Each structure stands twice: as C-alpha cells, then as structure tokens.
Amino acid sequence: MLLPTATQVLVVGAGPNGLTCAITLATLGIKATVVDDRSERSYGARGCLIHARTLEVLRTLGLSDKLKDIGIQSKGIVFYGQADPLFNVDIAALSDTTEFPYILLTPQSEAERIFEEFLFDHGVEVIRNTKVVGFQESSAEGLDVSFEDGSSILASYVVGADGARSTVRTLAGISFKDPSTSVMYDENPSSASFMLFALADVVLDINPSIEIPRDIISWHLNGRIMFCPLELPQALQHLHTHNTSFWRIAIAIPPGSTTIPPRHPDQAYLQNEIDERKPWKDYIRLDHLYTAATYRVRSAVAETFFKRVGSGKVLLVGDSAHVHSPSGGQGMNLGICDAVILGRAIAEHIDRGDDAILSDYSWKRTETARQVIQATKRMTAIINIPNGWRRWITSILMCVANWVAPIRRKIARRLSGITYRSG
C-alpha cells in the first residue's frame, strides 16, 4: 500500500495499542494512516493476558466477542509456595460486577491479528516497513513526518504507539522516567541491578502425576516461576497436528544474581531452570521452544501524553507512554484502554478544537499509569522475596489474607482493571 502525502491522524506502531486507536477512530468516521517499521506481526513472548476491564472497553468497538473465540478463559491467578496454594486472585468471583469474570489468555500476536483484520474491514491497511526518523513543523497545519526511505507525510495528529523506545516520544522531547526514583528509562546501569524475567512460549511434556491447571495462571513463589496456559497460535498450528500442551512460562531472576540469562534463552537454559526450581517436585520436560526473550524490569512514565509541536499534536499511548513490570500482565491492557480513550479524544478535538480535551486525556491516563506502576511494583516485590524466613512469613500472611473475602475481592478488582473504570 502506498503512503499518502497527507493524513489527519498518523498512528506510528501497529501493535495492539496503535491498532485499537485506529479502530476507535474508524468507528467514529476518521480514517487514520497506520505505519509500522516491522515487515510482519511479531510472534515473540509478549503480552498474553486480556483483563475484564479491557474486554469491557473492547466490547464498545465490537471486538470482545471476536477475542473470546481465540483464547482460554482463566478463573484467575493462584500463588503457590511449594505445591500448596497460598492466595487465589479469584476473578471468577467478580461475576456480579462484570460481564467478563475471567482473564482471557491469548498471545498478543493473536489479538493483533484480530485487530488488524477488523481494521482492514473498516478500510484501513497497515503500511509496513515504514520507519519514522524525524518530523518538523510545516507551513501547513500539522507536522511533516519523514521516513527512513526518504518519503514523508503531513499529519495534524501524530500518535506514538511505537513502544518503550518510542521514536515519536524522543523526537517530541518528552522525558520518560520512573515516577518514584526519577531515573530516566534510557539510563543503562548493569543488568545486575534489575530484576529480570525470562519469558518463553513452549510446548511442555508433563508427568501424568502432575496436574497443572489449564483454567488458571500458576505462580510458584518459592521457585519464582509462572505457568500460563495458552492456545496454540493460528500461525503455528501447522507445526503440531497432535494435541499439544502450549504454555507461556516466566522465570524471575532477582537483582544481584550471579547468573544472567541470555537475551534469547535457548531450550537447554530453560529446561535447566525448570529442573532446578522444581515447581511441582516432578519432571516437566520442555518438548519444544517457540520463542523466548529476557526482559529487564523497569518502570517509567512519560512527562506528558500530549504535546503541541508547532501546529501539530503529538500524543502517546501504551508502552510509548508508560512501562512497568510484567507482573499481573497489565501492559497490553493499560495500553488498549489508553488507545480507545485517545481515539475518542482525538475525534472530539477534531470537532471542537479545544486542547483541554487532549490535556484531560494526558492527565487522567498519566494518573492511571502511575497507579498501575505502583501496583505492579508491589507484586514484583512479593515475587522477589528470597526463600527463607521472609518468604515463610510472607506465605503465612498470604494464607491468612486468602481467608478474608474483602481483601481477595479488592485485589481481584485491581488486577482485572475494574478499579480503573473511571480513569
């Protein structure tokens, strides 16, 4: 598809956040231009949890029913000590509060496929292999955005949905730092000072004596390892014709560890970690590795999600605006909710021209991002507690809290995103 010479809204990044923003605009009669520097969708170990609040928001676009057909409906997250459960984040108990009392488990690539197909049906096609390298004020209304291949486009609104290392955010001169420590995201201290997560999508061969639930996410705190059941993505189904046991696993490596995992862990590394951590005290063999990556746990939020550059408007959404620990799977969810609210705000701004509309988006979503960052930091801190007396005391406290219904419900509401309905 050819790049037009001008567009009202340019969305940079065709991940779930950029696609959702473009879909929201399309449903309001505004045809955005969507560009992405990738040649195709990525199938890496990225987001895989879609929470109740996100499904509520996507229902307004007609997308929730399409997603329900491609994932596993999980009752919640169960935290284990050894083999015994300590605390149950029971999302199923929220059936009196939401139409979606579950966590939908599906790889991010599958959500992107559904979104891209839906957007195509609304007359918008993603323009790939198109990398933004700069923009400048134009004599006309908007910004002249330039691309790596020498082409350019005039855009009134530029939406940065291009990830944590956002080119759009950098070009706009918007700072990106931890809201608690003020450490800039681009600072690059030793990996030993960060908690790391090795995330992998794998097929497991599990001893029949072990029954790993496929209707919950299992977090084994003593071994710092998570098992999340997934359906095999459509793009990989031709590789396995028999019934497979497909999983996302997460292995947490605390700060100061002497062994740092490779950037893309191989099957031998992952198998060794499973063997050493023994979450169910019996063998779990990694039969096939599809994709794996190691992530440093960092938190950051943009100084603002909206900035005028000349007569152009630069707006941030998703990881371009905020990043945090993957604990609880909040990243894709927070970004999708950003995107729907932003799409509506842009449409209203086109109609009324009042910058207070975009400033309101920025302020409200910044506050929600800060709350989510603090919540994920608390969950990561629990995972990070070393084995020994502190882990023992924490386990007792979690068991006690599990018997207190208001505590369980409060945590379930926060994890599901229902707490942030007004944000």
TrEMBL record:
InterPro entries: FAD-bd, FAD/NAD-bd_sf, RIFMO-like. GO terms for molecular function: FAD binding; oxidoreductase activity, acting on paired donors, with incorporation or reduction of molecular oxygen, NAD(P)H as one donor, and incorporation of one atom of oxygen. Keywords: FAD, Flavoprotein, Oxidoreductase. Residues 7-182, 294-375 form the FAD-binding domain. Gene3D superfamilies: 3.30.70.2450, FAD/NAD(P)-binding domain. It holds the Pfam family FAD_binding_3. Its cofactor is FAD. This is FAD/NAD(P)-binding domain-containing protein. The lineage of its organism: Eukaryota, Fungi, Dikarya, Basidiomycota, Agaricomycotina.
